[in-house]
Amino acid sequence: MSAPVVLVHGFGTSGQLWRPVAAALSGALTPDLPGFGAAAPQGRPGQTTGDMAAALAGQLGPRRDVTLVGHSMGGKVALLVAARWPHLVGRLILVAPSPPTPEPMSGEDRAALRAAHGDAHALRRQYTQITRQPLAPRDMDQLILDGQRASRDAWHAWPDVGSREDISAEVAALPMPVTVLFSDDDPAIPPDVIRREVLGRLPGARARPVQGSGHLLPLEMPDQVIAALRAADRA
């Protein structure tokens, strides 16, 4: 990759989500968002997408024109970084992203998500339900560990606050190229939501659909993510 690559994890996970992708890249950064992974102590009640975006922009420091890649919740965070600090981002790649509009989750699903925090059995069930390819035991163990060490405040803030926010007006005119990689078989953020609430809100964004993966594309089909990054680098 000709530009620095920054890989931003999704809800409940950490930079370790990107292990198979980062292994194929040279010098990729995999920061932890506030409340998750090594940054768990930074989580707080009512944490917003803007809070996470500001923290991520601060971690990027003096870097410019990075290839910013965000998965799920991290996709919404990456969108806001690109809108508020456009000099930092040369290319934006969204992987199964949470939409810039409120994420369509039922009250029952939000309650189940909140309750899964710290519960190994609930976490395993959740990750089994949202994937379509079997996860390596090492990866499943890491997901469960991340779900157990995450800040409870940050964990609850996503279904209660961040996922409900509407940032679509801010991200409607991004100046950099945008690629949206998603699976037509994703049960967590279905393809119709991606097409309507992500691609439909980002004029000029390039759609890159795949089949056969669930929501955790960086673990289920890392080769597809790497191919999307390399294609964006050549564009």
Give an overview of the whole structure.
The protein is an alpha/beta fold and about 240 residues long. The chain is about 40% helix and about 10% strand. It has 11 helices and 5 strands, in the order βααβαβαααααβαβαα. The chain has helices at about 20, 50-60, 75-85, 105-115, 120-130, 135-150, 150-160, 170, 190-200, 215-220, 220-235; strands spanning about 5-10, 65-70, 90-95, 180-185, 205-210. The chain has a 5-stranded parallel beta sheet, with helices on both faces. Helix 3 (about 75-85) links the parallel strand 2 and strand 3 (about 90-95). Helix 4 runs antiparallel to helix 7 and helix 5 packs across helix 6. The protein is globular and about 45 Å long.
In terms of per-residue confidence, which ranges show pLDDT below 50 for 5 or more consecutive residues?
none
Task: Sketch the major β-sheet.
Answer: 5 strands, parallel
Q: Which whole number gives the mean pLDDT?
A: 96
Category by helix and strand content: alpha/beta
Instruction: Tell how many strands the DSSP assignment holds.
Output: 5
Strand order of the largest sheet: 1-2-3-4-5
